[in-house]
Amino acid sequence: MVAVAGDADAARRLMDLGVIRGTTLEVVRTAPLGDPMEVKLRGFMLTLRRAEAEHITVE
Q1: CA-angle at 24, arms to 21 and 26, nearest 5°
Q2: Is 4 within 8 Å of 19 (Cβ atoms)?
Q3: Residues 20-51: pLDDT tens digits?
Q4: What CATH number is associated with residue 12?
Q5: How many independent structural domains does the chain possess?
Q6: Rounded to two decimals, what is the model's pTM?
């Protein structure tokens, strides 16, 4: 992961959940319509809504 963007509240929430610069994210699965999605990071699974995931920039 490269960066967390968006408004301050959304970025803060993601960072509180462990989504910080340099963290490796792996998309494990998505719901049939693409929302929500489950990602694996730092040894645990995290479920994010598409609107939340759009704040995360990856390379």
Answers
A1: 135
A2: yes
A3: 888 899 999 999 988 899 999 989 999 999 98
A4: 2.30.30.90
A5: 1
A6: 0.75
Residue 45, strand partner residues: 40
**Residue 31: both structure tokens together:** 């719901």
**38 lies in which domain range?**
3-57
Single-letter code of the amino acid located at 24 = T
CA distance 8 to 21: 16
Provide DSSP, 1-58: --EE-SSHHHHHHHHHTT--TT---EEEEE-TTS-SEEEEETTEEEEE-HHHHTTEE-
Reading the block at residue 21, the tokens are 């610069």
